[in-house]
What we know:
- The protein has an eight-stranded mixed sheet, sandwiched between helices. Strands 7-2-1-11-18-17 form a six-stranded mixed sheet.
- It is α/β, with parallel strands linked by helices.
- Helices cover 27% and strands 22% of the residues.
- The radius of gyration is 24 Å and the shape is globular.
- The chain has helices at residues 19-29, 55-64, 67-73, 121-134, 185-189, 213-216, 260-271, 317-337, 346-367, 384-400, 402-405, 408-412, 476-489, 501-507, 531-535; strands spanning 12-15, 35-39, 52-53, 84-87, 94-98, 117-118, 138-142, 144-152, 155-162, 168-173, 175-178, 194-209, 224-227, 234-240, 244-249, 278-292, 296-297, 300-302, 308-309, 466-470, 493-497, 511-514, 520-524.
- The chain is built from 15 helices and 23 strands.
- The two termini are 32 Å apart.
- A hairpin with a 3-residue loop joins β14 and β15 (244-249).
Amino acid sequence: MHNQKDAAPPQVIIVGAGPTGLALAIELGSRSIPCLVVEKNDRTGHAPRAKNTNIRTREHLRRWGIAGRLAEAAPFGVDYPSNILFVTRLGGHLITRFEHAFGGNPQRDHHYSEHAQWIPQYKLEAVLLDHARSLPGVRVEFGRELVGITQDENGVSAVIRSVDTGAEATKKALYLVGADGGRSSVRHQIGATMVGVHGLSRNNMTIFEAPGLAEAQPHGPTIQVWQCNQDMPSFIGPMDVGDRWFFVPTGIPPETQFTEEQLLGMIRRSTGLDLPYRILSSEIWVASRLLADRYSRGRIFLAGDACHLHPPFGGFGMNMGIADAVDLGWKLAAVLQGWGAPALLDTYEQERRPIHDYVMDEAEANHALAPNQLARDGIEEDTPRGEQIRKEVADLIWKTKRPEFFSLGVVLGYRYMGSPIIVDDNPSTPWVRSVDYVPSAAPGSLAPHRWLEDGNSLYDHFGPGFTLLVLDADPRPEVLKVQAQARHLGVPLQVFETSDKEVADLYQAPLVLIRPDQHVAWRGGAVPDDLMSRVCGQGMKAPHLTGAGMGVAVDRSGKGHQGSVPPMVADRAPAGAEIRQGR
Length: 583
């Protein structure tokens, strides 16, 4: 493993060692960009935060060479059935079920190179941390708290405090990224405000040990159970080996807190199964829909929960943060390596904000129907009337909840529309939003995937920089033209040629330029003279480094608020309520 003491001075400081921060460190480290990750907390504990590592995130792990490591870390095996159950109680009647939810079908599918994986976030973080620390130039330090930031036209200075000793040190870099979660100190200090609706619902996340519960429930393997009864509506499901489960009662009234004995009673009532449960952790979390009014100030950027928070229904949150890290990561590397124009960084917010809005719409729509709204008088009766009520509820569930569990179009089908670094062959072609995925090679879309005739993934032939996909032997001079442009600008370019007819049918053009993040930058037959300069941000107006000249004041109180910088919305949450993302 790489010795972190020998790491080069950082060019990027990353605040936060959750999935977003670690993904950004990997994206930068894989491109030989030295970076420092600082994290206040030790990131230990029972609470998993998220549990769904979706298809797109697993494809990024494949690109980084660690998808297999995450598969090995799966507590129940990477091919464990991703079934969602709707029941009256875990020990009661089955209402309906969804199989292969969240893209967890282990059978090979042409639409993607890796299926989703149900795994506690802390196990994903362990895999990401281990890989990040193995990369030359990447340094990760825990027990380090950001106190304040200043910046100018030449770089950023961050005052970092040791949590144990209180000693402070100033770290310098060219850029800084706040990946420090829903209560982001970085967001606070650059004056960004979360805008939207706080408190869509109030919920509890309890982690508990339940010896024998998996065997006692009669409904078979599951990753998540909706318990739809009038007594204790809730979510429940297996989380890890050691008989570790999660329990989430929904619709909790304001100010309500639970004792350990109350929680044990709630679990028994909700499941109808009296077993020797043991509480490991419990916390209140609030579902909100919030988006930062700005994602950057000068050389400082926000990513992940630091700039967007939404209900966890659909399992998008953590995965969307990792996608932020990928988009920002390759662009920072391009600028720092000299082949990307500084204005390239402006496209981070231009591209990601509309996607955040889109995903938040879907998450909020999913959130509209929870277990407490599916309970009905008589739903638990072991009678013809009870059976009819359960059938009616099952019909409602299939009409309303399918988009939550089968949302491949949201995960893979989004498109960067109107981006200045996308060279669109037909800008008037609309992006058709759908939860059902229809592969498209329209510029701005994720490059359609295909398993090739030799059994390999098309994505495995994409390089770490740009890739020119050649699907027709005729435009050989045009290939040379792209290569010449790339050499002139110093842009990393790989050429991959295939005669696979299925791939040609997907892309509908003889030449396709794929970005480092596997989105289509351009397709066509005649290469524009300025193609490579446009996709790298050359020719864009230089960014206005807002606030770079005046700096951001250092706050040595550790509270992260200085002068007239507006407080973040999260600080106005009810006492004891921390905004967290789950599921």
